[in-house]
Amino acid sequence: MSHTIEVRLPTAKQWMSLRESVGWATFPPEVAERSLAATPFCVCAFLGDELIGMGRILGDGVISFYIGNVMVRPDYQRTGIGREIMERIAAYLDEHAAPGAIASLLSIKGRESFYTRFGFEPRPDEHHGSGMSRRF
Question: Cα angle vertex 44, ends 37, 86, to 5°?
């Protein structure tokens, strides 16, 4: 059976299962549902009913975009699914981002080269400092 790529939200349960499979933190269903509801764009990869990959865009949809939760179940990594997801995300950005807009992301250490294929540049650079985050 081959996978399908769909522009839609997963269920909270599917999303938390995928997060767990890649070693990321999981959240209670009500928290996951609130987060998903605030997602303007999401791409999912399914094998039957199983969510095997996803990526989503957060932000205002015009000038500020954050690409997050790009992940593929370990058994399906390095099969092109992540590339397919990012191609859909890049197409959405090409269509919706205003001139001068910025899309950002935080890459897992060692995976930066995956995102350079889609026009993302490592930071710091001549214009931007290091990406920063705060954990709660």
Answer: 105
Question: Closest Cα to residue 53, out of 41, 69, 40, 66?
Answer: 69
Which run of H or E residues covers position 55?
strand 50-59
What single DSSP character describes residue 74?
G
Query: pLDDT per residue over 73-94, tens digit each?
Result: 999 999 999 999 999 999 999 9
Please name the helix (run of DSSP H) or strand (run of DSSP E) that holds residue 46, with its range, or none.
strand 41-47
User: Residue ranges per domain, the chain?
Assistant: 4-116
For domain 4-116, give the CATH number: 3.40.630.30
Residue 23: DSSP 8-state: T
